Amino acid sequence: MAKEMVKVGVPVIIVQANPFTEQPILQPYFLTRPELYESKADTPKGSVANLETVGIDGVSYVVGTVIGLGKDGTSIDLDNGRTLKFGALVIAVGNHYPAIMAETGQDFSSRLAFVKSFPQKVLAANKIVLGGAGPVALEMACELRRLNKDCTIQMVTSGNSALQSWTGTPASVLAKRLSDLNIEVKTNARIDLPDGAGSRPVFNKADYSLSTGEVLSDIDIFLPYFGRARTEFLPDNVTSSSGKVLVNEHGQSTAFASMFAVGCGSHYPYSLMPVIEKEAAVVATNVRAVLSGDRTLPASLPASPPNDGQVVWVHLGIGEWSAINLDQKGCLPGLLSRFCGCFNPLCPCCGCCGWCCAYPAGECAGKTFGHLLGLGGNMHKIHPASPPAMHDIAR
Question: pLDDT by residue (tens digit) across 31-89?
């Protein structure tokens, strides 16, 4: 988002809750391998980096936790007692995924201590429950299984299957993989959450009631992956029940004309990369218009999400077994594309067979992905630029 704003000439200040960044896409991999998390920190192959190595040129930073909007709606309040005024505010907080992502305001030393302790918590558990059955929950469940071969692992979803956007052959292959790993998916059920458990992991033994009347007893670890946006600091009238910022077709808040959302807005049901990239381009254009005093916003979001907003890849577990769902793209794109993205129809790895079903899945694809991960890491764009400018704000 910030890069799009720089492109259109808008001065940007990023307010960041932690003095480091994490790449959540592959974080289940590094979370369950703490030695890699620590040894590859601040490198291109790591999943965590400090601001000095990933700061965006031309952007100023403020490190602090936002606790609310100012009374006039033109400023935000931080936990250190300071206030930051703005001409336009873009909410780009993303979703919070417990354990996979650092807690708001957490420093690196305490985050590292948690990452180091996490595998031992998993190994000591007899029963683990995950809320949700989307791609994040699925990948995390399989990483937990890699750590603990014997514990009971259950997933609870209000849908009728894991990863509901997949149907037909892809859904069947996915279900078989979960069955082979002895991971149970409880469908058409909602879980009654204790206070505070909607966005944080629970490591105390507890019972959980389902809407079906079933009770999951003596659960050692509960990890909720419902994809709740990290917007607790906003007033209730600004967000939906899942924390998404209520926006119009311009990505603009329905409550505040100077507020926009990217990656956590209500316009689309999913926030995958094609969606976020489109939202960022539209919002950047509209923010420039607002700052220029224009009453009409020039850019609008398409009614349907880019790329249909569907999940294409899933890794169960990461570097071991992967699937790419090309059924939804049609036969020709399936034949012309490959899991690694090389687009070589004569790929010596798998191109000769053509993957005629247009649904490659299995250990071969998983190991290919693992090899690419080893070569490229989590693709942090580490650069030798000077440390980013820190914006100074007065109390």
Answer: 999 999 999 888 888 889 888 888 888 888 889 999 999 877 789 999 888 889 999 99
**Structurally, how many domains does the chain consist of?**
3
Tell me the CATH number at 220.
3.50.50.60
Its sign, for the CA torsion 185, 242, 195, 142, is positive
Residue 320 CA from chain centroid, whole number: 21
* Residues 6 or more apart in contact with residue 188 via CB below 8 angstroms: 157, 158, 159, 160, 212
State the alpha helices, DSSP H only, in 188-311.
Answer: 273-291
pLDDT at 349 over 70: no
Token pair, residue 276, equals 């976020």
Q: Which helix (H) or strand (E) holds 314?
A: strand 313-315
Start-to-end CA span in the chain (Å): 27
Whether the CB-CB separation of 306 and 275 falls below 8 Å is answered with yes
Select the highest-mean-pLDDT range: 72-76, 161-165, 187-191. Answer: 187-191
Residue 357 scores a pLDDT above 50: no
Name the residue range of residue 74's domain. 2-100+228-307+377-390
Q: Do residues 363 and 321 make contact, with C-beta atoms less than 8 angstroms apart?
A: yes
Residue 238 and residue 256 in contact, taking contact as beta carbons nearer than 8 Å = yes
Walk across the sheet containing 152-156 and list its strands. Answer: 183-186, 152-156, 127-131, 221-224
